[in-house]
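Appendix B, Record 12. Input sequence as logged:
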Amino acid sequence: MSLTIGVDVGGTKIAAGVVDEKGVIGARARRETPSHDPAAIVETIIEVTKELADQHDVEAVGVGSAGFIDSARSRVLFAPNLAWRDVPVRDQVAEATGLPTVVENDANAAAWGEFRFGAAEDVDDMILLTIGTGVGGGVVLDGQIYRGAHGVAAELGHMRVVPDGHLCGCGLRGCLEAYASGTALVREAREAASLPSAERLLELAGGDAQRITGPMVTELANAGDELAIVLIAEVGRWLGEAMGSFTAVFDPAAFVIGGGVSAAGDLLLRPAEEALRKHTTGAGHRPEPEVRVATLGNDAGVIGAADLARV
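Logged structural output:
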Protein backbone atom coordinates (compact mmCIF):
# COMPACT_ATOMS: atom_id res chain seq x y z
CA MET A 1 0.00 0.00 0.00
CA SER A 2 1.24 3.47 -0.92
CA LEU A 3 2.60 5.48 2.02
CA THR A 4 3.18 9.23 2.15
CA ILE A 5 4.19 11.64 4.88
CA GLY A 6 1.97 14.51 5.99
CA VAL A 7 3.45 17.41 7.95
CA ASP A 8 1.23 19.92 9.73
CA VAL A 9 3.13 23.11 10.58
CA GLY A 10 1.48 25.10 13.36
CA GLY A 11 2.51 28.10 15.38
CA THR A 12 3.56 25.98 18.36
CA LYS A 13 4.12 22.46 17.02
CA ILE A 14 5.07 20.56 13.90
CA ALA A 15 3.23 17.25 13.67
CA ALA A 16 4.04 14.60 11.06
CA GLY A 17 2.75 11.17 10.23
CA VAL A 18 3.08 8.28 7.79
CA VAL A 19 -0.33 7.87 6.16
CA ASP A 20 -1.68 5.08 4.00
CA GLU A 21 -4.19 5.26 1.13
CA LYS A 22 -7.09 4.82 3.55
CA GLY A 23 -6.10 7.84 5.63
CA VAL A 24 -4.71 5.82 8.53
CA ILE A 25 -1.69 7.21 10.38
CA GLY A 26 0.83 4.44 11.02
CA ALA A 27 3.66 6.36 12.67
CA ARG A 28 4.10 9.85 14.09
CA ALA A 29 6.75 12.44 14.86
CA ARG A 30 6.42 15.79 16.60
CA ARG A 31 8.57 18.81 17.39
CA GLU A 32 8.07 22.28 18.81
CA THR A 33 7.91 24.99 16.15
CA PRO A 34 10.84 27.46 16.16
CA SER A 35 8.32 30.02 14.94
CA HIS A 36 10.64 33.05 14.99
CA ASP A 37 13.37 31.42 12.88
CA PRO A 38 12.24 30.78 9.26
CA ALA A 39 15.26 28.64 8.39
CA ALA A 40 14.91 26.56 11.55
CA ILE A 41 11.26 25.79 10.71
CA VAL A 42 12.30 24.26 7.39
CA GLU A 43 15.09 22.32 9.10
CA THR A 44 12.60 20.93 11.60
CA ILE A 45 10.26 19.84 8.79
CA ILE A 46 13.19 18.09 7.14
CA GLU A 47 14.16 16.47 10.45
CA VAL A 48 10.73 14.93 11.14
CA THR A 49 10.41 13.86 7.50
CA LYS A 50 13.76 12.07 7.54
CA GLU A 51 12.94 10.45 10.89
CA LEU A 52 9.80 8.88 9.41
CA ALA A 53 11.26 8.17 5.96
CA ASP A 54 14.17 6.26 7.51
CA GLN A 55 11.69 3.84 9.07
CA HIS A 56 9.11 3.53 6.29
CA ASP A 57 9.08 3.20 2.52
CA VAL A 58 7.34 6.46 1.60
CA GLU A 59 6.68 7.94 -1.83
CA ALA A 60 6.16 11.66 -1.23
CA VAL A 61 5.69 14.44 1.34
CA GLY A 62 2.85 16.91 1.81
CA VAL A 63 3.45 19.96 4.00
CA GLY A 64 0.48 21.91 5.36
CA SER A 65 1.26 25.40 6.58
CA ALA A 66 -0.73 28.39 7.72
CA GLY A 67 -0.47 31.36 5.39
CA PHE A 68 -0.57 32.09 1.68
CA ILE A 69 0.78 29.34 -0.58
CA ASP A 70 1.49 30.02 -4.26
CA SER A 71 -0.53 28.34 -7.00
CA ALA A 72 2.35 25.97 -7.79
CA ARG A 73 2.12 24.62 -4.23
CA SER A 74 5.80 25.34 -3.75
CA ARG A 75 6.36 28.56 -1.80
CA VAL A 76 4.95 30.02 1.40
CA LEU A 77 4.34 33.60 0.34
CA PHE A 78 3.27 34.95 3.72
CA ALA A 79 2.70 33.30 7.10
CA PRO A 80 2.30 35.91 9.85
CA ASN A 81 2.68 33.49 12.78
CA LEU A 82 5.71 31.70 11.32
CA ALA A 83 7.84 34.62 10.11
CA TRP A 84 7.88 33.11 6.62
CA ARG A 85 8.05 35.49 3.68
CA ASP A 86 8.34 33.97 0.19
CA VAL A 87 10.15 30.82 1.32
CA PRO A 88 10.67 27.98 -1.24
CA VAL A 89 9.65 25.25 1.20
CA ARG A 90 8.88 22.60 -1.44
CA ASP A 91 12.28 22.75 -3.08
CA GLN A 92 14.17 22.90 0.21
CA VAL A 93 12.40 19.85 1.65
CA ALA A 94 12.58 17.89 -1.60
CA GLU A 95 16.29 18.57 -2.01
CA ALA A 96 17.11 17.56 1.57
CA THR A 97 14.96 14.40 1.64
CA GLY A 98 15.04 13.23 -1.97
CA LEU A 99 11.24 12.92 -1.90
CA PRO A 100 8.66 14.63 -4.13
CA THR A 101 7.09 17.38 -2.02
CA VAL A 102 4.04 19.62 -2.20
CA VAL A 103 3.09 22.52 0.06
CA GLU A 104 -0.52 23.32 0.89
CA ASN A 105 -2.40 25.77 3.06
CA ASP A 106 -3.12 24.06 6.38
CA ALA A 107 -6.88 24.68 6.27
CA ASN A 108 -7.00 23.33 2.72
CA ALA A 109 -5.14 20.24 3.90
CA ALA A 110 -7.56 19.75 6.80
CA ALA A 111 -10.55 20.27 4.48
CA TRP A 112 -9.15 17.66 2.11
CA GLY A 113 -8.68 15.24 4.99
CA GLU A 114 -12.31 15.63 6.08
CA PHE A 115 -13.47 15.39 2.46
CA ARG A 116 -11.54 12.22 1.70
CA PHE A 117 -11.73 10.35 5.00
CA GLY A 118 -13.88 12.26 7.48
CA ALA A 119 -17.16 14.04 7.96
CA ALA A 120 -17.66 14.96 4.28
CA GLU A 121 -16.47 11.83 2.48
CA ASP A 122 -19.96 11.29 1.00
CA VAL A 123 -20.22 14.66 -0.82
CA ASP A 124 -18.40 16.42 -3.67
CA ASP A 125 -18.84 20.01 -2.48
CA MET A 126 -18.01 21.04 1.09
CA ILE A 127 -16.62 23.83 3.21
CA LEU A 128 -14.51 23.33 6.31
CA LEU A 129 -14.57 26.05 8.96
CA THR A 130 -12.13 25.65 11.84
CA ILE A 131 -13.12 27.72 14.86
CA GLY A 132 -10.09 28.15 17.06
CA THR A 133 -7.88 31.13 17.83
CA GLY A 134 -8.98 32.36 14.40
CA VAL A 135 -11.35 31.11 11.72
CA GLY A 136 -9.75 28.90 9.08
CA GLY A 137 -11.46 27.89 5.88
CA GLY A 138 -11.08 25.31 3.14
CA VAL A 139 -13.36 24.81 0.14
CA VAL A 140 -13.76 21.66 -1.96
CA LEU A 141 -15.81 22.06 -5.17
CA ASP A 142 -16.56 19.21 -7.58
CA GLY A 143 -14.08 17.07 -5.66
CA GLN A 144 -11.19 19.53 -5.99
CA ILE A 145 -9.70 22.06 -3.57
CA TYR A 146 -10.58 25.57 -4.66
CA ARG A 147 -7.36 27.61 -4.53
CA GLY A 148 -8.21 30.59 -6.73
CA ALA A 149 -6.08 32.29 -9.39
CA HIS A 150 -3.05 32.78 -7.15
CA GLY A 151 -3.42 29.91 -4.69
CA VAL A 152 -4.64 32.01 -1.77
CA ALA A 153 -8.44 31.60 -1.96
CA ALA A 154 -10.80 30.55 0.86
CA GLU A 155 -9.49 32.85 3.58
CA LEU A 156 -13.05 32.69 4.85
CA GLY A 157 -12.27 34.06 8.29
CA HIS A 158 -11.39 37.38 6.69
CA MET A 159 -14.70 38.02 5.00
CA ARG A 160 -15.87 41.38 6.31
CA VAL A 161 -19.07 41.07 8.35
CA VAL A 162 -19.13 44.39 10.24
CA PRO A 163 -17.96 47.63 8.59
CA ASP A 164 -15.31 49.24 10.81
CA GLY A 165 -15.93 46.55 13.42
CA HIS A 166 -13.56 44.90 15.87
CA LEU A 167 -9.90 44.84 14.93
CA CYS A 168 -8.83 41.49 13.46
CA GLY A 169 -5.42 39.92 13.84
CA CYS A 170 -4.88 40.50 10.12
CA GLY A 171 -4.88 44.27 10.69
CA LEU A 172 -8.28 44.96 9.15
CA ARG A 173 -11.56 45.57 10.95
CA GLY A 174 -14.82 43.67 10.95
CA CYS A 175 -13.58 40.26 9.76
CA LEU A 176 -15.60 37.16 10.61
CA GLU A 177 -12.62 35.99 12.66
CA ALA A 178 -13.13 38.95 14.99
CA TYR A 179 -16.64 37.69 15.84
CA ALA A 180 -16.80 33.91 15.41
CA SER A 181 -13.48 32.68 16.82
CA GLY A 182 -12.11 31.53 20.15
CA THR A 183 -10.42 34.92 20.43
CA ALA A 184 -13.77 36.67 20.02
CA LEU A 185 -15.34 34.34 22.58
CA VAL A 186 -12.68 35.22 25.13
CA ARG A 187 -13.03 38.96 24.43
CA GLU A 188 -16.77 38.86 25.00
CA ALA A 189 -16.43 36.67 28.10
CA ARG A 190 -13.92 39.02 29.70
CA GLU A 191 -16.14 42.00 28.94
CA ALA A 192 -19.06 40.19 30.61
CA ALA A 193 -17.03 39.27 33.70
CA SER A 194 -18.44 42.19 35.71
CA LEU A 195 -22.02 40.90 35.37
CA PRO A 196 -23.63 39.04 38.28
CA SER A 197 -24.24 36.09 35.94
CA ALA A 198 -20.47 35.73 35.43
CA GLU A 199 -19.87 34.53 38.99
CA ARG A 200 -19.04 30.91 38.04
CA LEU A 201 -16.86 31.98 35.11
CA LEU A 202 -14.90 34.44 37.23
CA GLU A 203 -14.48 31.85 39.96
CA LEU A 204 -13.06 29.38 37.44
CA ALA A 205 -10.55 32.05 36.37
CA GLY A 206 -9.40 32.63 39.95
CA GLY A 207 -11.19 35.97 40.19
CA ASP A 208 -9.17 37.53 37.36
CA ALA A 209 -11.16 38.31 34.22
CA GLN A 210 -7.97 38.46 32.16
CA ARG A 211 -7.36 34.78 32.92
CA ILE A 212 -10.62 33.67 31.32
CA THR A 213 -9.99 31.28 28.41
CA GLY A 214 -12.13 29.80 25.68
CA PRO A 215 -12.02 26.26 27.11
CA MET A 216 -13.31 27.66 30.42
CA VAL A 217 -16.34 29.13 28.67
CA THR A 218 -16.95 25.88 26.79
CA GLU A 219 -16.61 23.83 29.98
CA LEU A 220 -19.19 25.94 31.80
CA ALA A 221 -21.52 26.00 28.81
CA ASN A 222 -21.49 22.21 28.66
CA ALA A 223 -22.21 22.21 32.41
CA GLY A 224 -25.30 24.38 31.89
CA ASP A 225 -24.03 27.84 32.86
CA GLU A 226 -26.46 30.35 31.32
CA LEU A 227 -23.96 33.11 30.53
CA ALA A 228 -21.52 30.69 28.93
CA ILE A 229 -24.33 29.23 26.82
CA VAL A 230 -25.26 32.73 25.60
CA LEU A 231 -21.63 33.52 24.77
CA ILE A 232 -21.20 30.30 22.76
CA ALA A 233 -24.53 30.88 21.02
CA GLU A 234 -23.40 34.33 19.90
CA VAL A 235 -20.35 32.80 18.22
CA GLY A 236 -22.68 30.29 16.58
CA ARG A 237 -24.94 33.05 15.33
CA TRP A 238 -22.09 34.88 13.65
CA LEU A 239 -20.89 31.62 12.17
CA GLY A 240 -24.34 30.77 10.81
CA GLU A 241 -24.80 34.18 9.23
CA ALA A 242 -21.47 33.79 7.47
CA MET A 243 -22.41 30.29 6.30
CA GLY A 244 -25.50 31.82 4.72
CA SER A 245 -23.26 34.09 2.66
CA PHE A 246 -20.93 31.21 1.78
CA THR A 247 -23.96 29.19 0.68
CA ALA A 248 -24.95 31.96 -1.73
CA VAL A 249 -21.49 31.86 -3.30
CA PHE A 250 -20.50 28.17 -3.23
CA ASP A 251 -23.71 26.11 -2.74
CA PRO A 252 -21.99 23.39 -0.66
CA ALA A 253 -23.65 20.14 0.28
CA ALA A 254 -22.15 20.35 3.76
CA PHE A 255 -20.33 22.61 6.16
CA VAL A 256 -17.87 20.81 8.44
CA ILE A 257 -17.07 22.59 11.69
CA GLY A 258 -13.78 21.87 13.45
CA GLY A 259 -11.38 23.58 15.82
CA GLY A 260 -11.36 23.93 19.59
CA VAL A 261 -14.62 25.86 19.91
CA SER A 262 -16.49 23.04 18.16
CA ALA A 263 -16.13 21.12 21.46
CA ALA A 264 -19.24 23.05 22.52
CA GLY A 265 -21.21 20.75 20.20
CA ASP A 266 -24.91 21.56 19.80
CA LEU A 267 -24.55 24.68 21.93
CA LEU A 268 -22.58 26.12 19.00
CA LEU A 269 -24.16 24.22 16.11
CA ARG A 270 -27.85 24.80 16.85
CA PRO A 271 -27.57 28.62 16.85
CA ALA A 272 -25.36 28.33 13.76
CA GLU A 273 -27.91 26.18 11.93
CA GLU A 274 -30.74 28.53 12.89
CA ALA A 275 -28.83 31.56 11.62
CA LEU A 276 -27.85 29.68 8.46
CA ARG A 277 -31.50 28.95 7.66
CA LYS A 278 -32.48 32.54 8.41
CA HIS A 279 -29.77 34.00 6.18
CA THR A 280 -29.86 31.60 3.24
CA THR A 281 -31.34 33.16 0.13
CA GLY A 282 -34.43 31.24 -0.96
CA ALA A 283 -34.54 29.17 2.24
CA GLY A 284 -37.40 26.70 2.05
CA HIS A 285 -37.30 26.67 -1.73
CA ARG A 286 -33.88 25.09 -2.26
CA PRO A 287 -31.80 22.27 -0.77
CA GLU A 288 -30.01 23.44 2.35
CA PRO A 289 -26.47 22.42 3.29
CA GLU A 290 -25.94 20.16 6.26
CA VAL A 291 -23.84 21.29 9.20
CA ARG A 292 -21.55 18.56 10.53
CA VAL A 293 -18.85 18.26 13.16
CA ALA A 294 -15.36 17.38 11.95
CA THR A 295 -14.37 13.81 12.76
CA LEU A 296 -10.59 13.72 12.26
CA GLY A 297 -9.71 16.19 15.01
CA ASN A 298 -6.09 17.36 15.11
CA ASP A 299 -5.09 14.67 12.61
CA ALA A 300 -7.00 16.26 9.70
CA GLY A 301 -4.07 18.40 8.58
CA VAL A 302 -1.55 15.56 8.63
CA ILE A 303 -3.92 13.15 6.83
CA GLY A 304 -4.97 15.72 4.25
CA ALA A 305 -1.43 16.91 3.51
CA ALA A 306 -0.23 13.32 3.08
CA ASP A 307 -3.07 12.50 0.69
CA LEU A 308 -2.52 15.67 -1.32
CA ALA A 309 1.05 14.53 -1.91
CA ARG A 310 -0.52 11.78 -4.06
CA VAL A 311 -2.75 14.14 -6.07
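The chain has a mean pLDDT of 94.
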